[in-house]
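Section 5: illustrative case.
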């Protein structure tokens, strides 16, 4: 092996495993992150108050706040936006009394993640002091919100899977129609070939009879023999006209068969493509569900 190629081969081998962990749109298929709660602070009413920060991966600050709204709406009396807060929040994990929860979110585009910071107040002026319970709640919240982000990914790919299923069904329907048309044309062609063979056999017999009648009439000059000869020639001419029509019809049917064959191949290729897409999407969804289960 050329030693100059070795570094490139090693680099390629190191890249290969990562390629299968991300979809074409950048969605990661494996969970390899850690849920960490960090202490921070937040400015509120001209004060700096203690807060806790969690990371929501593969999303932005706007979506992190939206997910937090969905989390808090059923358990709060009101959700405000300026400042972003939930009032009358019932968080039994932290306090028996309703709380005010302040929220801020930022986006790290490069890392493709959001930071969600929350502060807990027992009323609008007094801080809730229960660090251990707050951190436990924040960790559980981080699990739920990260799972929600992955659920959004699953839902998006499920829509794509449903569309692929519809396209596959349509392609299979078109394929079946093309197969039916091809089979119908083939049956007609076989009938035409059978009729042509039958007429060609009759014509061969008529041609033999004509040769015999011509010899006989040359010898007898009998009007009856001429009548038989004329009648046989008329039958042969009629058969030849019918044979020409059959052969013309055969050519048209063969052209239709070629067209139906092309249509069949086109829809077969489409069905195969949609089937492959469907299988890929099913694999991605399975991986995402496994990823979601691994968020712990």
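Designed sequence:
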């Amino acid at each position: 092996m050329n030693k100059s190629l070795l570094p490139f081969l090693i680099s390629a081998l190191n890249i290969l495993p990562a390629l299968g962990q991300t979809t074409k749109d950048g969605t990661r298929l494996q969970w390899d992150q850690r849920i960490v709660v960090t202490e921070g602070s937040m400015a509120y009413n001209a004060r700096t108050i203690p807060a806790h920060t969690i990371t929501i991966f593969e999303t932005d600050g706007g979506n992190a706040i939206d997910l937090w709204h969905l989390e808090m709406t059923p358990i709060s009396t009101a959700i405000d936006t300026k400042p972003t807060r939930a009032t009358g929040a019932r968080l039994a994990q932290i306090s028996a009394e309703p709380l005010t929860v302040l929220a801020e979110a930022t986006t790290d585009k490069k890392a493709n993640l959001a930071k969600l910071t929350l502060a807990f107040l027992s009323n609008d002026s007094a801080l809730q002091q229960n660090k251990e319970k707050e951190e436990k709640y924040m960790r559980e919240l981080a699990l739920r919100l990260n799972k929600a982000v992955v659920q959004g990914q699953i839902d998006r790919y499920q829509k794509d899977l449903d569309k692929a299923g519809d396209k596959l069904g349509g392609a299979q329907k078109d394929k079946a129609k093309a197969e039916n048309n091809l089979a119908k044309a083939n049956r007609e062609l076989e009938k035409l070939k059978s009729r042509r063979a039958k007429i060609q056999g009759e014509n061969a017999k008529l041609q033999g009879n004509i040769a015999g009648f011509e010899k006989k009439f040359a010898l007898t000059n009998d009007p009856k023999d001429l009548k038989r000869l004329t009648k046989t020639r008329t039958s042969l001419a009629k058969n030849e006209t019918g044979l020409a029509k059959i052969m013309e019809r055969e050519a048209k049917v063969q052209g239709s068969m070629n067209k139906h064959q092309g249509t069949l191949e086109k829809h077969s290729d489409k069905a195969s493509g949609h089937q492959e897409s469907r299988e890929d999407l099913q694999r991605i969804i399975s991986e995402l569900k496994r990823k979601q289960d691994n968020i712990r």
